[in-house]
Write a structure and sequence with these properties.
252 residues, alpha/beta, Aminopeptidase, six-stranded mixed beta sheet, 8 strands, binds zinc ion
């Protein structure tokens, strides 16, 4: 090959790679990779109280035990209901996660429906490929106590491997620590230890096959917690804390 031809070939190769007609890459190499999937389970539902026949039906909750399909949840003394709190909080968390490229599945579509039952929520938390699931609740306890707590399964969850249980513990710890650092809520003063509480009656924890945690964000009967949970600014602060814990778990 003559030198001038070599130069021409090199020029063509450079133009092909970097020039105006350079290929933009294949679809496979340019498509954004799908982000991780997180399931958010806002506790209860706005229509539960008017459908006792549906929500009182017994469903399987793990370890051979049955419990009501769903419950109405609690409320502040001023009447702000837990189902409205969890619904608003879930959407705030979703907005933050989606902005970080995380896909989010909510276990209910509105705050006016009924259920779904706790075993159905556990099924949704077990969605194949979901990286994490978080159940969102608030407590209704004697007024003097306040603060958040993370419920953890006191046994090996029926649906989970030991490795999944370890991931659940890590997810719980990261969300717990983010809440303690920046939500305005303190670890519970009235239940569990340092914001952790072991129980074995929660279908979501017992039956989910994915890393799962269950949050009680405060005592709605306590004046301090009720003020925080009832205010949009308070819920925005809690949502930012929860989302940062989830994002830390996801390594994003
Ligand atoms: Zn609840």
């Amino acid at each position: 090959m003559r030198v001038s031809r070599v130069v021409a070939v090199v020029l063509l190769v450079v133009l092909a790679a970097f020039g105006p007609f350079a290929a933009q890459g294949t679809a496979a190499s340019t498509a954004a990779p799908a982000g991780p999937l997180v399931v958010l389970d806002p506790g209860h539902n706005g229509g539960n109280a008017s459908h006792p026949g549906v929500v009182n039906r017994l469903v399987y909750a793990g370890y051979g035990r049955f419990k009501p399909c769903n419950t109405t949840g609690t409320a502040t003394n001023a009447g702000y209901p837990e189902h409205a709190f969890t619904w608003d909080l879930a959407r705030r968390i979703r907005t933050i996660l989606v902005a970080h490229g995380v896909r989010v599945l909510l276990t209910r579509a509105s705050d006016t429906g009924v259920g779904p039952c706790v075993n159905r929520r556990a099924q949704l938390e077990s969605t194949r490929g979901a990286a994490a699931a978080i159940a969102l609740h608030a407590d209704g306890a004697p007024a003097a106590g306040h603060g958040f707590h993370v419920c953890e399964d006191s046994r090996r969850p029926e649906g989970a491997t030991a490795a999944t249980q370890r991931r659940s513990a890590r997810l719980s710890r990261l969300v717990h620590d983010a809440l303690a650092a920046r939500s305005g809520l303190v670890p519970s003063t009235y239940i569990g230890r340092n914001g952790y509480y072991l129980r074995d009656d929660l279908a979501g924890l017992n039956l989910s096959t994915n890393p799962t945690t269950f949050l009680e964000f405060g005592n709605m009967r306590n004046a301090h917690d009720a003020a925080l949970l009832s205010s949009p600014a308070g819920r925005a602060r809690i949502a930012r804390a929860v989302a940062s814990g989830i994002l830390a778990y996801l390594g994003r």
